[in-house]
Amino acid sequence: MNGMHGIIFSYEKKTGLRELIEHRVHGSIPFAGDYRVVDFILSNMVNAGITDVGVIMHGKCQSMLDHLGSGKSWDLSRRNGGLTLLPAFAYAERREGAGQFRGKMEALGCVQDYLEHIRQDYVVLSDSDMVINLPLEDVLESHLRTGADMTAVCTSVLGDGSDTYFKLDDTGRITDTVRDVHTPEGYRCLNIYIISKELLLRLVEDCMAHNEYSFRGSVLQRRSGELHIRAYVWDGYAARINTILSYYQRSMELLQPSMRRELFCPDRPIFGKENDAPSSYVDPTGECVNSLISDGCDIQGTVKNSILFRGVQVEKGADVEGCILFKGTVVRQGAILRNVITDKHVTVRENGTLMGHASYPLVIARDSEV
Q1: Are 49 and 137 in contact (CB under 8 A)?
Q2: Which 3-state string (H, E, C) describes 283-349?
Q3: Angle 173-176-178 from CA coordinates, rounded to 5°
């Protein structure tokens, strides 16, 4: 479907991810052993035939820059088009509030020159913090069939009150958009939209002229009467990573084969950055049970119901269960870990004990020695 162009928003948000976003934005959080969260929506776009993707970045974006690189891992390293990294406020000093990420419409206004040179007729707008395997070509087909001005992807699976919710009429048209409700009801917005390039440019120009910067407030709410906005309901796997607990629970779900099959669908593969590490090693005296193990790991102790990223070491006598260990974590001999998330390059000392709980996992910050 070469008629679509991808725009991904990667920016800092106020969430409960604490230590996991000290050095990165949400989209570059490691997930499922071999991936970053942004890999999922980026792969969705590539699987739908999208060859041009712009990533609008703001905040602690070095980790995202390092991960995406030229886009080669997603076949987006091209002479014309491909992956384009867009620092949202690099040339926006003249704008009021420049430097702050006040909203998506303002960010789009800051890259308006880029938008004007988009070659495709339709644009997919998405956040980078959604773990999903969505057939975007089906969303575009629905958008064209219904004659909508904009199509918003949503789900009937409710989340918490901080999410955005839609109310639909009998035809699937969105009649109301609300957020921060005490009792969630309706359809939860997944922050994925399809809109024509022409209409997007018109909305951006209008919002900039009126100093309006919020996509939800200025477009979904304020212009809902004049625009034909329809819903595409997706009740497959869709995980928004916005708290430590949601990250832990959604990660642990992937230890179930049925959940892995739903997310990692063979017809729509998920691509990640190349990994040239050697195969992992499990010592004959060690034990590894019901766990996701990335390449380059050295397991000489016991690992159960856990997710280990590349280059993790578990020494003899160490016991790890219900944990998520990021790249380069070292668990020294005799250490015991339960329900722990370690960021990159953490060292757990000999005979140390770290205990979290499934409902309140313990998080160890990057480069720590505990």
Answers
A1: yes
A2: CCCCEEECCEECCCCEECCEEECCEECCCCEECCCCEEECCEECCCCEECCCCEEECEEECCCCEEC
A3: 135
List, for residues 193-218, the tens digit of each pLDDT value.
Answer: 999 999 999 999 999 999 999 999 99
User: Each residue of 341-363: pLDDT tens digit?
Assistant: 999 999 999 999 999 999 999 99
Q: What spatial distance separates the first Cα and last Cα of the chain, rounded to whole Å?
A: 50
Q: Cα separation of 268 and 178, whole Å?
A: 32
Nearest Cα to Cα of residue 6 among 40, 65, 69, 55: 55
Q: Which residues pair with 304 in a beta bridge?
A: 289, 321
DSSP string, 9-64: EE-----B-GGGGSSS-GGGSEETTTEETHHHHHHHHHHTT--EEEEEE-SS-HHH
Q: Which tokens is 43 given?
A: 């792969």
- How many Å apart are CA 34 and CA 83, to the nearest integer? 21
CATH architecture of 4-263: Alpha-Beta Complex (3.90)
Q: Where are the domains of the chain?
A: 4-263, 281-364
User: To which H or E segment does residue 281 belong?
Assistant: strand 281-282
CATH, domain range 281-364? 2.160.10.10
Q: Distance between CA 342 and CA 289 in Å, rounded?
A: 19
Q: In the numeric block, which tokens belong to residue 237? A: 């796997």
CB-CB contact of 31 with 246 (8 Å): no
Counting Cα atoms < 13 Å in the Cβ hemisphere of 188 gives 21
Strands 319-321, 336-338: pairing is parallel
Which residues does the chain have with pLDDT short of 70? 1-2, 89-100
Distance (Å, whole) CA 337 – CA 302? 10
Q: In whole angstroms, how far apart are CA 52 and each of 225, 260, 358?
A: 32, 28, 40
Question: Who contacts 289 (Cβ-Cβ below 8 Å, separation ≥6)?
Answer: 303, 304, 305
**Whole-angstrom distance, CA of residue 19 vs CA of residue 356:** 15
